[in-house]
Amino acid sequence: MENARAFANTFIIKNASEGYELLFDDPDVDIVYIATPYNFHVDNVRDAFNVGKSVLCEKPIAISSKESKQLIDLANHKQLFLMEAMWTYFLPAIIKAKQWVKEGRIGKIKHIKADFGYPMPYQLESREYRTDLTSGCLLDMGIY
Predict the structure, then answer these.
(1) Same domain membership, residue 76 and residue 25
(2) What is the extent of the structural domain holding 57?
């Protein structure tokens, strides 16, 4: 709880909570950000929807396209906001590239090759290597 309070103070956030259940019960909270390991996303999103909270969910929003569709359908049914947190959409370079394409500044696009990566040291206890958390390189970085 100490870390949550420190974070809240740093970013001028009114309240800090210990455990997502308290956020779900707070009538002043309209939307929650879900950043749990992937295998918890579907349940966490459903739980939020069931108490009327909109959701910004870290990628991947679900493990399968079937689960993703179920969440989208549930959001539509309950008239709640659901968005996958894809931070790369908002990088200045991406925004500028999209602008240039739209303006025709770089001509007709025929082919794009892009690479994305970062060093991931082997640490058996980290989420990237724990198969019980449905993690690994494909779900962690393949989405980009």
Answers:
(1) yes
(2) 1-85
- pLDDT value for 78: 98
Helix axes 38-50, 65-78, angle to 10 degrees: 20
Contact present, 87 and 144 (Cβ < 8 Å): no
Q: How far is CA 45 from CA 20, 36, 55, 88, 89, in A?
A: 11, 10, 7, 22, 22
3 and 47 assigned to the same domain: yes
Q: What is the radius of gyration, based on Cα positions, of the chain?
A: 18
What is residue 72's predicted lDDT score, i.e. its pLDDT? 98
Same domain, 4 and 36: yes
What is the number of structural domains in the chain? 2
Dump pLDDT digits (tens) for 42-92.
Answer: 999 999 999 999 999 998 899 899 999 999 999 999 999 999 998 888 899
pTM tops 0.85: no
